[in-house]
Request: fold
Amino acid sequence: MRVVVLVSGAGSNLQALLDAVRSDPDFGVEVVGVIADHSDAGGLQRAEAAGVDTLVVRWGDHASREDFTGAIVAGAKALGADALILAGFMRVLSREAVSTFPILNIHPALSPAFPGANAVEEALAYGVKTTGVTVHFVDEFVDHGPIIAQEAVDVEPDDTPQSLHERIRKVEHRLYPEVIRAFAKGRLRVDGRVVYWRADD
Ligand code: GRF
Reply:
């Protein structure tokens, strides 16, 4: 399966996927491109270091969400994508993307709690004792589509948003490649909101 990864930030989840693909000849995924919504996303450098094609589609260059999404879809098609992997991509795509590609996203909270861009800070401020990681299929709503996998991360009494996010990222870097591998091998079946896993061959 040929995937294009969309990033806005540091790209540590992109790196975890690139490392997992490289270290497992049976992974079944080729990262054929990385698209960022601005040119100083750290993920672009990681892609270049790995010899992966990159593309910048600037939010500000587009008149509407639909135009921006159209440019992302065209770019991903040109790169040869079968699927899109959102890895810290901070823009919401319109319906065209969801109807063109299967799309996966990773969210640093236990959905449906704390959707949106500040999930780690909001979970900490709310006082939850456990938060975590959610990997889900993307639908038209934010952090909402069918849940593929979740893993809990306990909140420590002295946590800051940074320390908590660091432990969440450790889980993400293991869980996301595992889910993407299963997806590429056709092991995930979606029935309404429920995702069923088929055992590995
Ligand atoms: C991750 O915590 C992910 O869950 C969230 O954004 C963060 C991206 O981190 N959507 P990175 O850019 O992969 O390091």
In short: The pocket of 5-O-phosphono-beta-D-ribofuranosylamine is lined by residues 7, 9-13, 87-88, 106-108, 168-169, 172 (CB under 6 Å). Strands lie at 2-7, 30-36, 54-56, 83-86, 103-107, 130-137, 147-154, 188-191, 194-197.
